[in-house]
């Protein structure tokens, strides 16, 4: 058996998803010599500078932290070189210039929360649910010039439950991803990595960046399409719709619903409300709304909302 290599790792990441992976590496005595994360950003009314989740965690562990605004700047590249890393790991960071990902001897690998080549892009967890997939997973691959196209190292698959939302799937993939990154590091350490090129002719789906337009509900779509969109965008950024209620037009966010498949004579988009429930008529039945948020208000379960808010008889979706 070949001698294990001494790895010196630079870890790159920003959100909570990346923290769990970094924590797993440290818990398993993997040598992380530096952490690269996003610069602090002003947030809230006081515009107080907010640290990324990765920075907050890295500080508690006394790790060397770099926060470059420009990944191509000579100063940053010199600082990165001085860490003398021989492997870089990227989890939920940003696109790297070639000068960065080519630097370490054993390459730079990325953890992506999908079964590549499917769902390359910014929001793989959300789109897998929005598109009604029953399986997804995590992949590790060596970074190349394009986005999420490099040679694959390892993959792990997981089932998507019928009522799963993006939040619960995010957490499952975060833990699955931690194990996969650790396995990948161990393969690199003993020098037995086998990579597979991603099939260029594969018909794959894209994980487009989420925006206000692609998060809006179209009540004329099928009941499954609407249900999948709502759970695929919950809890963040949340699906939304426009409500006309007594000449007031509101943008309303919706987080949790149930499907009720039943024949009815209501017009699509009609609202049926009582003191205890709110339903929206769709082609094959009703979408029963369970958690909802009015503009400027906190998220409420539907019974709490209906205690203080009235949907008029002619209220409708726009």
What does this structure look like?
There is one protein chain. It is built from 8 helices and 18 strands. The chain has helices spanning 16-27, 53-60, 74-82, 98-101, 124-130, 166-190, 223-232, 302-308, and strands spanning 9-13, 32-36, 41-43, 48-50, 65-66, 87-91, 108-112, 120-121, 135-142, 152-159, 206-207, 239-245, 248-261, 271-273, 278-282, 285-293, 300-301, 316-317. It has 2 domains: 9-206, Formyl transferase, N-terminal domain (Rossmann fold, 3-Layer(aba) Sandwich), CATH 3.40.50; 213-317, Formyl transferase, C-terminal domain (Methionyl-tRNA Fmet Formyltransferase, Chain A, domain 2). The model has no long low-confidence stretch (mean pLDDT 94). 26% of the residues lie in helices and 28% in strands. Helix 1 (16-27) runs parallel beside helix 6 and helix 5 runs antiparallel to helix 7 (223-232). By secondary structure, the protein is α/β, with parallel strands linked by helices. The chain starts with 8 loop residues before the first strand and ends with a strand.
């Amino acid at each position: 058996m070949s001698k294990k290599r001494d790895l010196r790792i630079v870890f790159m990441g920003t959100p909570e998803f990346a923290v769990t992976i970094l924590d797993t590496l440290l818990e398993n005595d993997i040598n992380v010599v530096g952490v690269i994360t996003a610069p602090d950003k002003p947030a809230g009314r006081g515009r107080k500078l907010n640290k990324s989740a990765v920075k907050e965690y890295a500080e508690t562990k006394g790790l060397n932290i770099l926060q470059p605004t420009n990944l191509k700047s000579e100063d940053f590249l010199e600082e990165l070189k001085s860490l003398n890393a021989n492997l870089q790991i990227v989890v939920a960071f940003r696109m790297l210039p070639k000068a960065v990902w080519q630097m370490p001897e054993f390459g730079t690998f990325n953890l992506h929360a999908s079964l590549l080549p499917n769902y390359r892009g910014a929001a793989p967890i959300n789109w897998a649910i929005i598109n009604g997939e029953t399986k997804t997973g995590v992949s590790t691959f060596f970074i190349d010039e394009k986005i999420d196209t490099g040679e694959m190292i390892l993959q792990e698959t997981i089932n998507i439950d019928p009522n799963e939302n993006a939040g619960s799937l995010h957490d499952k993939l975060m833990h699955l991803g931690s194990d996969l990154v650790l396995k990948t590091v161990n393969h690199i350490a003993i020098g037995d990595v086998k990579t597979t090129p991603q099939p260029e002719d594969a018909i794959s789906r894209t994980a487009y960046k989420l925006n206000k337009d692609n998060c809006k509900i179209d009540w004329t779509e099928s009941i499954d399409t609407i249900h999948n969109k709502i759970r695929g965008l919950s809890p963040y950024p949340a699906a939304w719709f426009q409500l006309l209620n007594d000449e007031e037009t509101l943008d309303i966010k919706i987080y949790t619903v149930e499907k009720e498949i039943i024949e009815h004579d209501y017009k699509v988009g009609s609202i049926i409300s009582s003191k205890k429930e709110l339903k929206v008529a769709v082609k094959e039945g009703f979408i029963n709304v369970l958690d909802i948020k009015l503009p400027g208000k906190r998220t409420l379960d539907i019974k709490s909302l209906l205690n203080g808010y009235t949907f008029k008889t002619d209220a409708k979706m726009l």
